[in-house]
Amino acid sequence: MLLGTLSYKTKQFFVVLIKLSIVVGAFYFIYKKLTDNEYLDFNDFTRFLSENKSFSVKNITFLIILSVFNWFFEIVKWKTLVDSIKRISFKNALEQTLGSLTASLITPNRIGEYGAKAAYYTKAFRNRIALLNLVGNMMQMTVTVLFGIAGLIFFKLNYNLDINYLKVSRFLFIILLVVVLSFFGAKHKTFNIKGNTLQKIIHFIVYLPKTVLVKGFLLSVIRYAIFSFQFYFLLTIFGVNVHYSNAMIVITSMYLLASIIPSIFIFDVVIKGSVAVYLFSIVGVNELTILCIVTLMWLLNFVIPSVFGSYYVLNFNPPKNTSNT
C-alpha cells in the first residue's frame, strides 16, 4: 500500500481528508437531491407539508420513534452477526452501522458499506466482516422478495395491473441464466466476489450458527414491518383513505420492484418515487402525495441517521494491527 510508505503525520492528514470528503460529499448529495429533484420541487414539498393540518408534533414524534426502532433493530442485527466471530458492544455496532451508512450514501447500491464496515477491523477480520454484511443484506432482501411476491400476486388479483408477460419472461430467463452460470462458476471456482468464490461464500453462510441466521432473519422481518407500517401511517396522515391490508399490497409490491432496480443509492428516492407513483395511481392516490411520502421516508430513515453517522465518520480511527478489533 502506498500509505505504508508515508510518515505518521502524513497518514493522519490523509485520514482526516478522507473523512471530511465523505461527510461533505454525503451532505452535498443530500442537498442536491432535495433542491434539484425533477420529480418533486422542494418548494412544493415544503408547501404541501405546511398545508397539511394532520402533520402535528404528535405525528412527527411517532414517525421519528418508528425510524429509531427501524435502525435499532438493524444495529441489533449487525451486532448479532458480528458476535458470531467476535464480541462487540451495542455502541460499537451503532457506530459501525451509522458510520457505514454515511460513508456508503453516494455509492451504487450502498456498495461502499462493505468497505466502510470492514475498515473498523484489522486485516484478519475484514474478509469475514464483508461476508457478514453480505449475509445481513441478503436477509433483508429475502424478506423484501417474499413479501413483495405475495404483494404482487394480490395486486394482480385485486387491481387491473398491466403486465407485459413477454418482458417478465425475459427478465426471469436472464435471472435463471445468471443463477446457472453462477452455479457452474462456483463449481469451477471461477466466480468470485472480492477474492471469495461463490462456493466459499455459501460455505461461510452454511457454517454460521443457525441461531444467528434465524435471529438475523427475524430482525429483518421486524424492520420490514416497521418501515412498511411507517409508509402506511404517512398515507393516513396525508388523508389517504385506504385499508391497511390494501395499502400493504401496494407497499410490498413497491419495495420489491424498487429493490430489483440497480441504482446509485442517493437516487433511491427517485426510483421508489417512480414505482410508487405508478402503483398508487392504480388505486387512486395522487402523485404529489406519494412523492412527498417517499421523500419523507428517505429523510426519516436515511438522511437523519446519516447525519448522526457523520459524527462517527469524523471520529473514526483506523484499528491498530495489534488490536483485536
Describe the protein in words.
By secondary structure, the protein is mainly α. The protein has one domain. The protein is 74% helix and 1% strand. The chain has a two-stranded antiparallel ribbon. The chain starts with 7 loop residues before the first helix and ends in an 11-residue tail after the last helix. It comes from Gaetbulibacter jejuensis. It holds the Pfam family LPG_synthase_TM.
Question: Which spans have pLDDT < 50 for at least 5 consecutive residues?
Answer: none
- Biggest β-sheet description: 2 strands, antiparallel
Number of domains: 1
Taken in chain order, the helices and strands follow as HHHHHHHEEHHHHH
Query: If you average the pLDDT, what whole number results?
Result: 81
State the assembly state of the protein chains. single chain
Rg for CA atoms: 21 Å
Strand order of the largest sheet: 1-2
What proportion strand?
A: under 5%
Count of helical regions? 12
Strand tally, please? 2
Content-based structural category: mainly alpha
Termini separation (Å)?
20 Å
- What is the overall silhouette? globular
Amount of helix: over 70%
Membrane topology: Multi-pass membrane protein
Protein name: Lysylphosphatidylglycerol synthase domain-containing protein
Main location: membrane
InterPro entries: L-PG_synthase/AglD
